[in-house]
Amino acid sequence: MLNIPNSISFVRLLLIPVFVWLALTNNLALACVTIFVASFTDWLDGYAARKLNQFTRLGQLLDPISDRLYILALLLVIYYLELAPIIILVFILLREFILTGLMIYLKTRGITGLPVHYLGKMGAFCLLIGLPGLIFAEAFKETAYIWLTIGWSFSIWGLLLYAFSAYKYFEHAKVVLSKYV
């Protein structure tokens, strides 16, 4: 249970409140370093799991939970620093809320979950590059034009992929439910 990949994932989870605290206390450069380290640990835990052949159910759960929590933390900081229109933040939160409701509904029907869709993974990947880019632009004003280009490009793609993946999850849920009726 507490193997090397899972330990790395726990470190990533522990970095979330550190990131939020640094950002909200206006230590944006250190917050950006924290984001970078957390992103590296996201890659490292998967690499370690494959290399060491240490796969666990806990590890499979920690990765998407960590991604969601980081996205929520990034949204909190972006909202606090007023770096993006509120509608973008509301869209991401609404999508997460609706899909959580769908998963709860499916569970009441005896369906334990849906397979992760690659569009959702790519959307999360884009958001985990794009949203930090907006914070990097605020932290490193001399190169803000680069960070804003990266931030908005990946964020827009992430939003589009997130929207389409939500549609695909509902489509898949409909198929799965039709087999149980």
Number of DSSP helical runs? 6
Q: Per DSSP, what share of the residues sits in E-state strands of 2 or more residues?
A: under 5%
Percentage of residues in helical conformation:
over 70%
Number of strands: 0
Distance between the termini: 37 Å
User: In one word, what is the shape?
Assistant: globular
Instruction: Domain count, please report it.
Output: 2
Radius of gyration: 17 Å
Biggest sheet character: none
Series of H and E elements:
HHHHHH
Low-pLDDT stretches: none
Mean pLDDT, all residues: 91
User: How does the helix and strand content classify structurally?
Assistant: mainly alpha
Please outline what is shown here:
The chain has helices spanning 4-24, 28-52, 57-81, 86-108, 118-139, 144-180.
Structure description:
The mean pLDDT is 91. The chain has 6 helices and no strands. It has 181 residues and is mainly alpha-helical. The chain has 2 domains: 1-62; 83-181, no CATH class. The longest helix has 37 residues, at 144-180. Helix content is 85%, strand content 0%.
Features of this protein?
181 residues; mainly alpha; 0% strand; globular
What is the fold's blueprint, element by element?
Elements (H helix, E strand, L loop, with lengths): L3 H21 L3 H25 L4 H25 L4 H23 L9 H22 L4 H37 L1
Helix pairs in contact: 1-2, 1-3, 2-5, 3-5, 4-6, 5-6
